[in-house]
Amino acid sequence: MKKHAEKDKRALVLSGGGARASYQVGVLRAIASLLPKESTNPFQIITGASAGALNAVSLAAQAQRLRTGVRTLEYTWKNITSAQIYRLDSGGLISSASNWVFSFLANRRRDTPTSLLNNEPLEQLLHKVINFDRIQRSLDAGYLETLAVTASGYTSGESVSFYQGRADIRDWRGPHRIGVRTSLTLQHLLASTAIPTLFPAVRIDREFFGDGAIRQLSPLSPAIHLGATRILAVGVSSNAPNNPAKAIAPARPSLTQILAHILNSAFVDTLASDLEALRRTNTLVNLLPPEVALDPSLHLRPIELLDVSPSQNLNNIASEHFDDLPRALKLFVRDSGSSAILSLLLFEKAYCQRLMDLGYQDALAKEAQILEFFRPC
Question: Exposed e or buried b for every residue in 94-121, given b needs 16+ CB within 10 A?
Fold first, then answer.
């Protein structure tokens, strides 16, 4: 059985953002190439939200060999099409849009799902490529200690991290975020990837859930609660400049533009600000007298951080691949006037391949930091 050190725990944190999550696969490929060929999963803790949860669960299910897990993700994202994520027939799209608008205008409950897209193909894809039974096998064999998938509760308004792992871990509660022990299933993953208004909400127990990136104000929190002492975080947004907007006469926004604005605001990647906050905390902890910093009642400990994020603006890259978008969605995206929406929904090979290549290059640019991060515990 593979044993991990009890006090020094590495965590992988994968944030969300629809098709942008293909960037994370490139980063993981670079990490796998830098570590010994036969390496098992090097992370004791893996957490993911939104499409990052898809990558996290797939990696955990094949934790016995890192390169095999990464190759599975590569194969999935290299061959992905929008038709594998949501239904593209115009009749289905029009029907879903009609239901959504009617429900919105009527302001009353309906039995039909209020979403613009039908994501049944995604459910079929996840069922095909991920064996959820293998998660517990990885845990039992010691290749992994804990896996967490985050979703957003529509009733409670809380960010809920569903976790499966070590028996000594206890559920936690923080400001608008909680941790709940469970056996992770396809439903948890569908909930975490359910982009609001675009994909239908998923019921788990007594509540409906949506995309885990929503209201996840502290993406690092689940990993910290699970005992991480080193965190490698892979985001899907960057500070790279966007293309300058053309000066145009203002016009009253359409419903699609308003929806796009709401989604843009909801999917602001809070990982960068969370990393900054944790680095400040690390500095303060290191300044405290040892007798204070080591007081177990204060739950203070410095956490080593390494982040990899896109060096190029992913929205700009998505704009270059607009013509790859299925015809049924082109009008919707064009009317939204938002390349951010395009970057979320562009589940097409060429775009995802470019993001994987970028992730690989960005990670290799941090080769020294990555090797230092994976120094022996």
Answer: eebeebbeebeeeeeeeeebbbbbbbeb
CA distances from 218 to 31, 66, 146, 326 (A): 24, 27, 18, 34
Convert the pLDDT of each residue in 226-253 to its tens digit: 999 999 999 887 555 555 555 455 567 6
Question: By C-alpha distance, which of 182, 189, 183, 236 is closest to 209?
Answer: 189
Q: Which long-range contacts (CB under 8 A, 24 or more apart) does 88-92 make?
A: 88/326, 88/328, 88/329, 89/328, 90/327, 90/328, 92/118
Q: Tokens 């009253």 identify what position? A: 252
Contact between 162 and 23 under an 8 Å Cβ cutoff? The reply is no
Structure token digits, residue 149: 């998938």
Q: Please state the separation of Cα 150 from the chain's center in Å.
A: 9
* Tokens 């803790």, residue located: 45
Phi, psi at 51, each rounded to 5°? -65, -20
What's the pTM? Answer: 0.87
pLDDT tens per residue across span 108-158: 555 555 677 889 999 999 999 999 999 999 999 999 999 999 999 999 989
